[in-house]
C-alpha cells in the first residue's frame, strides 16, 4: 500500500452530483491532513444574514477598521465555532501554518486584530469546519466525489464565494460540465 498524499494547503472541490447536499459546490481549504485525519474550512458558500460586523457585535468587539465581510459556512462540524483562514503575515496564540501557503486561526485574538487594523492583511472568516477521521479522507479520495487542486491566492482571497467552485475547476483546467458523478460498468 502506498503512502497517502497529504493535502494540507490545497483545496477540495466537490464533484458535480455529490450525494451529500451540504457539500454541493463545496470548496474546502484543507488546513491539516495527516495519519490522524483531516480538517478543512469550507469557502464555497456564505451564511445568509451574517456578516463580520454581526459576529463582532455578538462578541462585544468594536468594529474598528474591519470591513463588513460575509461569514462563510465552514462546514457541518461545530457550526458555532469560528475560524479565520488568513495570510502568513500575522500570527496569534493558536495560529497554524498551512503548508506555507496560508494560516488558520481559531481564537478571538485574530478578530480583535482585524478590527484594530493590525491583523492579517488578507483573510476569510467562517463558522464550522469539515472534518475527517483517520484514513477517512484518503478513502473518499479513491472514489468519485472530490477533486484536489492546488489553487492560488486569488481563489482564496479575491474570488467571491459563489464563484470559487467554478474558478477552482477553471484554474485546474477542468470543465465541470464534462464530469459525471456515476461510474459505469464494463
Describe this entry's structure for a reader.
With 186 residues, the chain is α+β, with helices and mostly antiparallel strands. The chain has a single domain, classed as 3-Layer(aba) Sandwich (VC0467-like). Helix content is 20%, strand content 32%. The longest helix has 11 residues, at 161-171. The model has no long low-confidence stretch (mean pLDDT 91).
Q: Quick recap of the structure?
A:
This is UPF0301 protein GGQ80_001409. The chain is α+β, with helices and mostly antiparallel strands.
How would you describe this structure in keywords?
186 residues, AlgH-like, UPF0301 protein GGQ80_001409, alpha+beta
Total helical elements: 5
Uncertain regions spanning at least 5 consecutive residues = none
Main beta sheet: 10 strands, mixed
Relative helix content: 10-25%
Shape annotation: globular
Classification by helices and strands: alpha+beta
What is the domain tally? Answer: 1
The third-level CATH topology is: VC0467-like
Strand content: 25-35%
Say how many strands there are.
Answer: 10
The overall pLDDT, averaged over residues, is 91
Following the backbone from N to C, one meets helices and strands in this order, namely EEEEHEEEEHEHEHH
Radius of gyration: 17 Å
Which architecture per CATH?
3-Layer(aba) Sandwich
Pfam families: DUF179
Organism: Sphingomonas jinjuensis
GO cellular component, one term: cytosol
Protein name: UPF0301 protein GGQ80_001409
Amino acid at each position: 500500500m502506498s503512502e497517502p498524499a497529504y493535502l494540507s494547503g490545497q483545496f477540495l472541490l466537490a464533484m458535480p452530483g455529490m450525494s451529500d447536499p451540504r457539500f454541493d459546490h463545496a470548496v474546502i481549504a484543507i488546513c491539516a491532513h495527516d495519519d490522524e485525519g483531516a480538517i478543512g474550512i469550507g469557502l464555497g458558500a456564505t451564511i445568509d444574514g451574517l456578516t463580520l460586523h454581526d459576529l463582532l457585535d455578538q462578541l462585544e468587539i468594536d468594529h474598528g477598521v474591519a470591513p463588513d465581510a460575509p461569514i462563510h459556512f465552514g462546514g457541518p462540524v461545530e457550526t458555532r465555532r469560528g475560524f479565520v483562514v488568513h495570510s502568513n503575515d500575522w500570527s496569534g496564540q493558536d495560529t497554524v501554518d498551512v503548508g506555507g501557503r496560508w494560516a488558520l486561526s481559531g481564537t478571538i485574538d485574530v478578530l480583535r486584530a482585524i478590527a484594530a487594523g493590525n491583523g492579517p492583511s488578507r483573510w476569510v472568516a467562517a463558522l464550522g469546519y469539515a472534518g475527517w477521521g483517520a484514513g477517512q479522507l484518503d478513502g473518499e479520495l479513491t472514489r468519485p466525489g472530490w477533486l484536489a487542486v492546488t489553487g492560488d491566492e486569488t481563489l482564496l482571497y479575491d474570488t467571491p464565494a459563489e464563484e470559487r467552485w467554478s474558478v477552482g475547476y477553471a484554474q485546474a483546467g477542468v470543465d465541470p460540465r464534462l464530469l459525471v458523478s456515476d461510474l459505469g460498468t464494463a
